């Protein structure tokens, strides 16, 4: 059984500036841009993924492929699909981030360690979805 969560986000130049200050990723493609378009940092693109920054989740393993750039002004929809594992406090994840024009910009997999409360909530959602 599995559950899926999605989130949509529009990235701004201010988001890119804040990410640059926090991470030190000051590449010219982020700060000046390519042509007239500023590209988001990879970690900023990842911030759109639901559950990755949830206080009840600790990511044990992540593997991502960045397939296409995301620019300031782009809208992305991030999807994470959690699948139960043998350990009720662990879940495998499949991640996808797609721009509004349908371009897949990021794919990946991971293993998430869940708090007991979140594991219970997800188990309830899984049972509800299966009904």
Shape: elongated
Q: Using the CA coordinates, give the radius of gyration.
A: 16 Å
Coarse structural class: alpha+beta
The major β-sheet equals:
5 strands, antiparallel
Please provide the count of β strands. 5
Number of helices: 4
Beta-strand residue percentage: 35-45%
Oligomer: single chain
Q: How far is it from the N-terminal to the C-terminal residue, by CA?
A: 11 Å
Q: Regions with pLDDT < 50 over 5+ consecutive residues?
A: 127-131
What is the N-to-C succession of helices and strands? EHHHEEEEH
Can you give the helix content as a percent range?
25-40%
Mean pLDDT: 86
Main β-sheet, spatial strand arrangement = 1-3-4-5-2
Name the descriptors.
5 strands; five-stranded antiparallel beta sheet; single chain; alpha+beta; 27% helix; 131 residues
């Amino acid at each position: 059984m599995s559950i899926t969560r999605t989130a949509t986000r529009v990235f701004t130049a201010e988001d890119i500036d804040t990410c640059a200050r926090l991470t030190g990723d000051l590449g010219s493609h982020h700060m000046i841009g390519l042509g007239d378009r500023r590209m988001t940092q990879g970690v900023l693109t990842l911030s759109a993924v639901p559950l990755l920054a949830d206080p009840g989740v600790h990511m044990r393993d992540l593997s991502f492929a960045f397939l296409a750039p995301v620019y300031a002004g782009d809208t992305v929809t991030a999807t994470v699909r959690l699948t139960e594992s043998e350990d009720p406090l662990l879940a495998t994840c499949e991640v996808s981030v797609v721009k509004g024009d349908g371009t897949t910009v990021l794919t990946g997999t991971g293993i998430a360690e869940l708090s007991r409360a979140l594991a219970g909530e997800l188990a309830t959602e899984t049972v509800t979805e299966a009904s």
